[in-house]
Write a structure and sequence with these properties.
By secondary structure, the protein is α/β, with parallel strands linked by helices. It folds into two domains: 188 residues, Leucine Aminopeptidase, subunit E, domain 1, CATH 3.40.220; 263 residues, Aminopeptidase. The protein has 14 helices and 19 strands. The strands form four sheets. Strands 7-8-10-9-13-17-14-15 form an eight-stranded mixed β-sheet, with helices on both faces. Strands 1-6-5-2-4-3 form a six-stranded mixed β-sheet, with helices on one face. A hairpin with a 5-residue loop joins β11 and β12. α3 packs across α4 and α5 runs antiparallel to α9. It is elongated. It starts with 7 loop residues before the first strand and ends with a helix.
Length: 505
């Protein structure tokens, strides 16, 4: 199952395609220092009898401001949307916001297709090809509207086609531009796939439902190999830590493994591990009721794996990646795990569960042990793990902790390149004391109120001694409470950028 909104994304060069004759519901022109000297813009302005240039002078005084013009005689576009472009010193996140607004404008006008001329100005140290990829990625992921569980009030996205207009590109550069658009489109599809899975209500997205959706991926992408493990199979493998989470639920847990082999046969895979708690009550250590509905997004780590693997398969990327999705419900019942219970993990280490609401790390512990069988070059886990990361970093960046500095640096770098930012927190030896307990090898919580995000990573590090590993805490970035409750699809852009750049060597 893949979830893309647009049916088509294309690149056209304006030197061989007149802007005035272009039939589109909305023609978007990003105005920057080079626009007025562009021959295609000059033609458009001449046909409008300088109306466009006069409007720019009178109405687009502030950076990022915009104005919508109705149909102009001699110009085929139904609407002309002028946007005062950003300069190269503007932070990347504002560029993303600008194109998110364009996508939303297209849907609000009920446009079936939009054509965008982004121009040649891009953020510092980034080029036109980055901009084209970003436009494709951002428009695809931002025209998305969730309506799966609505009947009478459903609103569906109308935009189904995107044309990116370039100027002066030909030959190999035009080919490269088209490939950039294709890459951005595929990443945007991966973002939507993750958002869709996260936005589904918990009763529409149980571990077994996710299992069916993962298995259905092979219909769209036969280059993916999918395996699924039920509770009996996990029990035989000794996954007592993972299974302690699902004990209180009528819904059985599932672990899905997605293998993609696009690289060299002898190349070790990069492993992705995602936490997939489809609903988290906190278990016996029950959460307070306000905003508990948002716990349907506690499976966004697994959703990220789902989205990234679809992106790689769509692009036939030349990498080897294995993705693990650990899915379970954390519920209360007479069978539920109790604070103080001791379980045995797949690694053989025993764990005293002092808080059943610290359940994600119990799932990840066994998944991280399991993935070692693939002899991965690197392992990255993603999880909505701690509220503490929201306090530490706010909603703007995911938290990164690692036992390998090179891996951490490449994750941060990919975040900056994609606009899906992350920030490193320390994982020092001093933090390891939080896992000590009298009654087992490890405790699943410790350290009190201090450094909660880091202490969770310290626990996970006990299961990653055999490989290079990084943990990304996405509790702050995978979904938002305001201005509307919604999934974001992060960190699909970051992970996709990291893998496709092939900088993990």
């Amino acid at each position: 199952m893949a979830y893309k909104v647009l049916n088509n994304v294309s690149v056209k060069d304006t030197e061989s395609n007149s802007l005035a004759s272009l039939k589109t519901d909305m023609l978007v022109i990003v105005i920057n220092k080079n626009t007025k000297s562009d021959s295609s813009f000059k033609e458009l302005n001449k046909i409008s009898k300088n109306y466009i240039s006069k409007t720019i002078s009178s109405h687009l005084k502030d950076v990022g401001s915009s104005i919508l013009l109705p149909k102009i005689d001699g110009i085929n576009a139904e609407n002309l949307f002028l946007v005062n472009g950003l300069d190269s010193s503007t932070p990347t996140h504002k560029w993303l916001s600008a194109y998110q607004s364009i996508a939303k404008k297209g849907n609000s006008l009920k446009c079936k297709d939009i054509s965008i001329m982004p121009g040649k100005v891009s953020p510092s140290q980034k080029d036109e090809f980055w901009l084209i990829e970003t436009v494709a990625k951002t428009i695809e992921s931002s025209v998305y509207i969730f309506s799966e569980t609505k009947n009478k009030t459903a609103t569906k996205p109308t935009v189904k086609k995107l044309t990116i207009l370039t100027s002066g590109l030909s030959g190999s550069d035009l080919t490269k531009a088209k490939q950039s658009a294709k890459t951005g489109y595929a990443i945007g599809e991966g973002v939507n796939t993750a958002k869709y899975l996260g936005d589904l209500p918990a009763n529409h997205c149980t571990p077994r439902i996710i299992e069916k959706k993962v298995k259905a991926m092979t219909k769209d992408f036969p280059n993916l190999k999918v395996k699924s493990f039920n509770e009996q199979q996990m029990q035989k493998m000794g996954m007592g830590s993972f299974l302690s989470v699902s004990r209180g639920s009528e819904e059985p847990a599932r672990m899905m493994v997605i293998e993609y082999k696009g690289g060299k046969a002898n190349e070790k895979p990069i492993a992705l591990v995602g936490k997939g708690v489809t609903f988290d009550t906190g278990g016996v250590s029950i959460k307070p009721s306000p905003a508990m509905d948002e716990m349907k997004w506690d499976m966004c780590g697994a959703a990220t794996v789902f989205g990234v693997m679809s992106t790689l398969a769509r692009l036939n990327a030349d990498v080897n990646v294995v993705g693990v999705m650990g899915c379970a419900e954390n519920m209360c019942s007479s069978k539920a795990t109790k604070p103080g219970d001791v379980v045995t993990s797949m690694s053989g280490q025993t764990i005293e569960i002092l808080n059943t609401d610290a359940e994600g790390r119990l799932i990840l512990a066994d998944c991280l042990t399991f993935v070692g069988k693939y002899k991965p070059s690197y392992v990255i886990d993603m999880a909505t793990l701690t509220g503490a990361v929201v306090v530490a970093l706010g909603r703007h960046a995911s938290g990164v902790m690692a036992n390998d500095q090179h891996l951490a640096e490449k994750i941060i770098e990919a975040g900056e390149e994609s606009g899906d930012r992350a920030w490193q927190l320390p994982l020092w030896d001093e933090h390891q004391s939080c896992t000590k307990t009298k009654y087992a090898d490890l405790a699943n919580i410790g350290g009190g109120r201090e450094a909660g995000t880091i202490h969770a990573a310290a626990f996970l590090s006990k299961f990653t001694n055999d490989y290079k590993w990084a943990h990304i805490d996405i509790a702050a970035t995978a979904s938002y409470s305001t201005p509307v409750k919604a999934g974001t699809g992060r960190p699909v852009p970051l992970i996709s950028q990291l893998l496709l750049s092939k900088k993990l060597k």
